[in-house]
Amino acid sequence: MLATKVIQEQGVHVEGINFYTGFCVEGHTHAIRKKDKEKQKKNSSLWVAEQLGIKLHIIDISEEYKDIVLNPKHGYGQNLNPCLDCKIDMVARAWQWCQDNDFDFVITGEVIGQRPKSQRKATMPIIARESQVEDRLVRPLCAQHLPETYPEREGWVKREELYDFSGRSRKPQFALAEKLGIDEWSQPAGGCCFLTDASYSKKLQDLWDARGERRYEVDDIMLLKVGRHIRPAKNFKLIVSREEGENNFMRGYRSQFTYLYPTSHGGPLTLIDGSPTDEDLELAARIVARFSQGRNADKVTLEVVREHNQPAQVVQVVPMPADDIPEEWYIH
Amino acid sequence: MSQHELNARNLLCPIPVIRTQNKISELSAGDQLVVYCTDPGTLHDIPAWCRVHGHTLVSAEEQSDEIVITIEVNDT
After folding, report:
1. pLDDT tens digits along A109-120
2. Which of A22, A42, A242, A313 is the most interior residue, by most CB within 10 Å?
3. Which of A248, A230, A252, A251 is nearest to A239 (CA)?
4. What is the second-level CATH architecture of the domain A2-195?
5. From the CA of B56, how many Å to the nearest CA of chain A?
6. Structure confidence by residue, pLDDT tens digits, A257-291
7. UPF0033 domain: which residues (chain B) (predicted)?
8. Model ipTM?
9. Nearest-CA distance from B22 to chain A in Å?
């Protein structure tokens, strides 16, 4: 937001690009969970574009992005976040978009030293080189620490009106925001990608381990955002809805999974990922019963559906005591 | 000038916005697009997208279990 405003202040026409990877935190999660229903469901990038008075192009790269997540040339950050490869890929795509739409250069809000993996002095030239944008990439907030770019040499952008921010402190950014009349902003980078989240990364790693290969579909990564994930064995995992909003969301996936739900008591819809045996499904039913309103009852009745729209199998089970579910079964 | 429809039911934001954006790029000024959605986030996001791109939001309303948004395409 600040970087754009700084360039706009120099009379340059700017348009925004927002890449949708499937791992974006907001939007989906707010839409799914009932407890978040009261939160404002605005899309941050659209909100920022509106504040700045610029067009915003939202581009779905979720399929192509798999290669970045699965095979990051520069490795992962603290979790399964391939931040440097991600940044290179997005700058490359932005530059291609510029060339296709008669724009002259790319700007980013990067600040040297702001992020431990992707925003270091050493990574700045790597991003410019490997994205092939080269010197058509301007970082208005830290440009004075970096070599002069083509737009600066051509006089399209005045170098002396760019900034020299560095480090993790955001105080200079807050001061600049105040100077530019910006008193509300979107959340800082890093907090908007599920791959930086330790719990989410564990679930993704578990998915790969259970399948014996590193691959995913977009539906897989959506389901990692909802429910309790409980894996009693390598061949199957339960995704137990935690509340009504998740229940409604997961109903849309019934045609792709074996699923079960209590009928004698209120309780969660549960999807079974994998290839469970009949014994596995009985164990799953006991676990689901534990999360139902019949958790203290002698017996809970559930319906198990192997194939959506086919007859359900009715089972009666003793709810599993909470202490009998080993902590290591929970993926979190 | 013609009327078009887009089914964005059971899709979560920002996918309905992306589908709307892509569909509108194929239409001409004066055309109308009716988008059917279920994600409540679309009530905020699609009107916001229209504002930043200069298209006219004709209406955005919740009808039983779905949201129906009508947009008139402008030459932007």
Report:
1. 999 998 877 788
2. A22
3. A230
4. 3-Layer(aba) Sandwich (3.40)
5. 15
6. 999 999 999 999 999 999 999 999 999 999 999 99
7. 4-72
8. 0.93
9. 9
